Amino acid sequence: MKYLVGMDVGGTNIVCGLLDGEGRLLEKIKRPTEAHLGSEHVLEAIAQTVKTLISSRQADTRQVLAVGVGSPGLVDPEQGITLFAGNLGWHRVEVAKQLSGKLNLPVFVDNDVRMYVFGEAITGAGKGYDHVLGITLGTGVGAAVVVRGQVYYGGGFMAGELGHMRMEGEQTTCACGMRGCLETVASATGIVRQVREAVAQGKQSVLGTWFPTANLSGLTAADVSKAYDSGDRVAREVLDHTGRVLGRALAYAVTLFSPDAVVIGGGVAEAGERLLAPMREELQRSVYQGYWSRLAIRTAHWPDDAGVIGSALYAKQKVEEA
Amino acid sequence: MKYLVGMDVGGTNIVCGLLDGEGRLLEKIKRPTEAHLGSEHVLEAIAQTVKTLISSRQADTRQVLAVGVGSPGLVDPEQGITLFAGNLGWHRVEVAKQLSGKLNLPVFVDNDVRMYVFGEAITGAGKGYDHVLGITLGTGVGAAVVVRGQVYYGGGFMAGELGHMRMEGEQTTCACGMRGCLETVASATGIVRQVREAVAQGKQSVLGTWFPTANLSGLTAADVSKAYDSGDRVAREVLDHTGRVLGRALAYAVTLFSPDAVVIGGGVAEAGERLLAPMREELQRSVYQGYWSRLAIRTAHWPDDAGVIGSALYAKQKVEEA
């Protein structure tokens, strides 16, 4: 039997999966990233996790076709290097070469969002569509485009930064240095910020009661959904506004890329229709109807695993191309 | 000697060019489209023009490698059909098949903007760049992306409709049925409309003196540039505003496609720095600096001929692929 290994390296955890040769997930291990101990430590821990995973199936490393790694930040997949990943403190880490040396296996690295969208495009909610635009709404906002099974990279491997489109009327300073980026609104942090600002302005919200501490410490985007369901007006206004801003940004992406399907994943997507209904409404209003009428909008099929599955399938594609 | 034929079919004129096998333009003929006489008439006229062009060089049809046609409207290049072209009154016209029958030559058809950008990308201002975003500012606003010599089509061959991105704060109804599309601002008609509205609102402009008739009848975008140079405040405000709205739209396209070069063509681009200076300023302000620092912004190298050259080279590429 042949295997694939796929991996999603996050700022907090690494999720490492063993898949069969067709990309079906058999088993996964989650472990802390411990990025503060340095890239050498993280890569060694990844290698050990891969070995543990393989031996847990009484398998042999030689049965593994390829290893795929989804890394945060700016990645050069051709060279196999993570050029910059702020949340890991990585700068030009040769992920593919180093891991390949430790595992004696072909290793491929690409950006985590691209791998997530690749997984959804090949075998998830985008399956069967030629042009898939995938977005991830989490701590930040990411996006990628997959055309007939090939990632669209753009110059400098920098295409698809939907999260850093400046949205009219938004003023919050973004981590990137600009103001009003989509990511300052349509992310978990953006939603929490909007609620905090509303409460600070004196708006009445059940969230102020649930989180009586200064600045609603501990509040998450999931809590905002709960408040919405209890009829809270601030929660509704925030998710409504967030959905509409997201819809406007998506309208630009749809008009420029003309995808057949838009796949929406990431933790914030769990808000479901509370967020997606206003998003769709605004998107429909903001694109030529020729796009709208042919567009499928789907939530992720593998919300937790698309990154692991996608990186494994990506590695398989690369090995087969070579 | 081997030849290529390229063609730009517009609402008013058809420009037909004879090129050598490398895509160097040798000769061209311009003739009225006469679209009101129907597609059969137009295609027959095109075929006659191609024959005239070939015989003027004492050449033989058999020396022509391929014929490329840039058609306005929505084109399916795989089937060789112009699906819809409003300004020609065409609906599902089988351009490639019909012309191929008349000429006994391989004929390929694609959208005129894509062919223009293809020409600039391969042999014009975008030459040497892997990822080229080209825009044409004329009666309308068109755009296309060419990646390593391949056009990016998107689903339904509908990618790159920069002209139909709805711009915040703009309210003019567009021919597409939406309101506030970029095309209602950053086109020749958009510039003329803005001047007319300013004068109608009682703003003093030398253009009101130059065009004393009702609604400044006869006014063109070129006149607005002349007024700008004479120090006219309305002309400056209009070109300034137009440049800034264009810069904002381009910021979205740059963030999503990450081009290495942006090439700007079309008649309105003749406004030069009057338009491009505010455009660049707004673009720089609206994109992550990582894009800005690696981006080349160029005006078209073949402002008049890129469509003819591009369609000829596109036809050559298709013949070689087959």
TrEMBL record, chains A, B:
<dbReference type="InterPro" id="IPR000600">
    <property type="entry name" value="ROK"/>
</dbReference>
<comment type="similarity">
    <text>Belongs to the ROK (NagC/XylR) family.</text>
</comment>
<dbReference type="InterPro" id="IPR043129">
    <property type="entry name" value="ATPase_NBD"/>
</dbReference>
<protein>
    <submittedName>
        <fullName>Glucokinase</fullName>
    </submittedName>
</protein>
<dbReference type="Pfam" id="PF00480">
    <property type="entry name" value="ROK"/>
</dbReference>
<dbReference type="InterPro" id="IPR049874">
    <property type="entry name" value="ROK_cs"/>
</dbReference>
